[in-house]
Amino acid sequence: MTTTTGSTAGAAPTGPAPAEETGAALGRLLFGFFPTQVLHVAATLGLVDHLADGPRTVEDLARATGTHGPSLHRVLRALACFGVLDEVAPGTYGRGRHADGLVEGGPSSMVHLVRLFAGRDVWRSWGELDETVRTGEPAWHRVTGASSFETFAADPEQQASFNKAMAEGTRRAAPGIVAAGRFERFSTVVDVGGGDGTLLAAVLAAHPDLRGTVFDTPSGVDGADRTLADAGVADRASVATGDFFGSVPTGADAYLVKSVVHDWDDERATQLLRRVHEAATDESALLVVEPLMPTAPAASPEVLMLVMSDLNMLVCTGGRERTEAEMRDLLAGAGFEVRSVTPAPGSAYNVVEAVPVA
C-alpha cells in the first residue's frame, strides 16, 4: 500500500477573528505550560503510585512525599481538574480516570515521557527557542554543554529514564507497526537503535518463526535482555552493541529503524542509512518507522503534535520531521529505493519500506 502525505486542511476562515475568540485561542496557548509542570510534579513525586492502596489525605501524601502540605494540596487540586486524581472527600484524593497514565510501569504509563519532556533539560532548551531560530543551532548543547545523547550516556539514571520514556511511546504504537510491517515475510530482523527492545519484543511475539537482534549503544540497550525475556522471546533474540554511524549487524532479511532518523540532520541521517545499506543483502528490506510531515499545515491535533515534535527536534537534537518526499530523497541519497509507505494503524507512524539499489 503506497500513500502520499498531503494537507488535510479544509478551507481556512478568512478575515480576522473577533477579539474574544482570539484572546481565548491564544490564551490557551500562552498558559499551556502551566499544566505541563503540574504533571511533572505528579510524575516526579510518584503521586499516583502513592494512591495504590486507596485515597489518602493531603497531610498523609505530604508526609509520604516529603512536601509542604498546603502547597501540595494546590497541585492535587489541579490534578483533580485534569482527571488524574479525584477528590473523594474534602482534602482526600484518590486515583482519577486518567491516573493510569502516571502509574510507574503500567501498560498505559507516560511517567517517564512526562519526566523527560517536562524535565529540566528539555524545559531549558525550549526556553531558548528564539536563539535557536536565530542561529539554527540546537539549544540543548548550549544549555547543557553536551549533545542530548551525550548527556544521557554520561548519567546512568537519566539514560535509564530516557530508555523507559522511549519504551512507553513505542509500547502504544507497536501493534500498528507490527501490522504495517508485514514481518511474516522475514526470517531475521535487526532493530537498529532499538533501545530496550520493546519494539523487537512485540515483533517477535507476533511472529514465532522470526529471529531478531536489537542493536544500540551499550547504554541504549540497558534493560533489553529483561524486556525480551519478559516477552518470552529471549530464545529467538540477541542484543548487540555498537555505533550505528560506524556499522550495524550484517546479513538480516529486514532492518527496522524506528524514531531514529528524525533525531539527526540530513548528513548524519544519510550516514546512518548508508551503514544499513552496507550491512544489507540485495534481498534485504529497510523499514523506517517515522511520522511524515504533511506538505501544508492542517488544523488537526495529529498535525499539531507532529509540528511540535519537529520543533522539539530543532531545539534538542538538531534533527527534524520529514515529508514523504524528503524521506524518499534521504533514502535515495543512502542508496535505497522506496517501495511502499504504509500507515501504522492506531498511531501517527508510517512504515516506509525501501530496498537497496546499486
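[next item in queue]
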Amino acid sequence: MREVLLHGGLDEAFDRSVGFARRLAESFGARLHVLYTVEAPLGAGWTAEVGAERLPEVHQAMEGEARERLARYIPIEDQERLGIQIALRAGEPVPEIVRYVESHHIDLAILQANRENDRDLAHAHAMLDRCDCALLVLR
C-alpha cells in the first residue's frame, strides 16, 4: 500500500478521521492524500455573488482554509515531512473521488459515513461500485 486517500469534509467525522488516516498511512509507509470536494461554483449559483473572473481567487481561499483545517490535526511541518498531498476539487464527490483515485493510483480510499446521513451512505455504496481500490468506510 503506497497511496492512501482521505476524502475531506467540514464536519466532526472528518476531524476524527484525520488522525486515523495519518497513522494508517505512516504504518504502511504510504503517502497520504487529502481530497476535499466542494459543489461546482457554476452549478451552485456562486457566480451571482462572485464573478467568474474571481473564481480562481475563491478556489485559492478554499484551499487555504482546507490546509488550515488540516493543520489543526497534522502540523504543517509534519505534512511536509510526510509528503501529504492536499487537493480541492469542485463537483459531485463520487465522480471527483473516482477521478482522483484513478489519476493518482490510490490503493486505499477512506470515507466517512454517518448512519443518519443518507448522502454519506449513498456515496460509500457508489464508491464500492465505481472504484477499483480498497475502500474503508469510517463511522
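[queue empty]
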